[in-house]
Design a protein that fits this description.
519 residues, 4 strands, alpha+beta
Length: 519
Amino acid sequence: MVRVKNDSYRFQMKTFGMTFVAGSLLVSGCSMNPFITQNESKSHKSLVAASENNIENKSQTDSVQESLSPVSHVESTSESEKTDTIKLVGAEEHHYPNPLEPVQAPTVEEQAILTGGMTLQNLESIALQNNPAIQELAATTQKAAGYREQVTTRPNPTVGYQGQQLADRGTDQHLAFIEREFVTGNKLELNNRVLNATLSAQLQELEAQRYRVRTDIQIRFYEALALQKQLELIVEFSQVAEKGLDFANQRLKAGEGTRVDVLQSKILKSEVDLTQRQTRAKLAAVWREMAAISGIPELKYSKLQGTLPSETGPVDWEGLAANIVTSSPEYAAAHDRISRAYAALERQKVQPLPNMTAQLGAGVDYSTNSGMLNLQVGVPLPISNKNQGNISAAQAEICRAQMETLRIKNSIEERLAVVSREYDTATAAIDLYSNNILPSARESLEIANQAYQAGEVGFVQILLARKTFFDTNLKYVDAQSQLAAAQSRIDGYVLTGALNSVRDDSGDASLRDQTFSQQ
């Protein structure tokens, strides 16, 4: 009797030992996906950053593709996809500002340092650190990275206890079990490809937003710089108009002038004063725009330092359009969404492959005083649901993504056409003003002064010559401002709208739910 009990005890211990080893294999991941098993041995980190070289190479590769037909898309091999993977890195390598801790606005003391002159580089630096749209898109890249990590995680094992015949003493059975689902069809790696393309697209959208902020800041900066220059000219001419009005009054009192001369001088002085007030109001408004784009509405005004363009060269607009399209982060993001659509189609095609669920249990049966070892394996049968609807939707998404890429390409070319008109008209104006109109206006004023001193013309002719010289100088500065704005748009890939709503296409973790629902 004692021997039987000992044998039973050894059998139970042997059973539990075998169960422990098998359970350890279940928990540690006897996964059918060697890629996921290998990758998950490395620790995951929560912050996101993109390899700039990988994104740049990918953008150049995507830009070469001329046709947007679905049949022309060539799937990349798994080797190249692994090379282009955007990796999660540590906080010390984080390239983008933390959206939860935006850079604080400069204090009054810090702003006072800039009163000696604010440069374009100062404003761009402030805007890139504080613009809320950039912060928002930085958050979407972190969301996309989090979803990418989530959709590649394997399922947790299930452990439990089962008791039978508990009411019948001496015949009760006790069983401890462990259950694990094994993913088939490389679904987790395909999930990673889909979310990896999503993350890449969001990183390109973030880069595009940076260009939007830079472009808007540059346009307002040169506009404000032109208004600042015009104010200097207005103040200078206002002094001349004031002296002209005093001189007309003196001539009237001396009996040499007329009442018309005084009224004309007064009108000219009033027009100059009005122009000065309007220019000051425009400058204040433009500064408030720059402050809002920079993310610091309370930014104090300081005099701007910079120069307006005065020389231009010929532009090959067709070649420039091709370069802007192929280099634009907006266009690169659209190509990443095409890659995501193809990855999603490949993922949906393997969804009908059923996962395998295995359950291993070990216990003791007191009715026979012996151990128990149970193994259960099951798979769902893809009879009714073969994922036809999702496959069809994924195919339609490829077409939609390709048409969106074509739309963005045409939109870039259309925006560049508008900019080319502004650039060419400003170039023509600067050329004529600098080489013809301004020298003629200056010479006309000098001749009018000499003729007036010789008594050949009246005082009104002097006023008209001064007014013409004043107006031509203001228009020349306007042309310089228009040229600077057009050049800024070209340098920024014709991307504007620093405070427009951003595109949150960071995805979700639904692919993981689909992976394990099998329905």
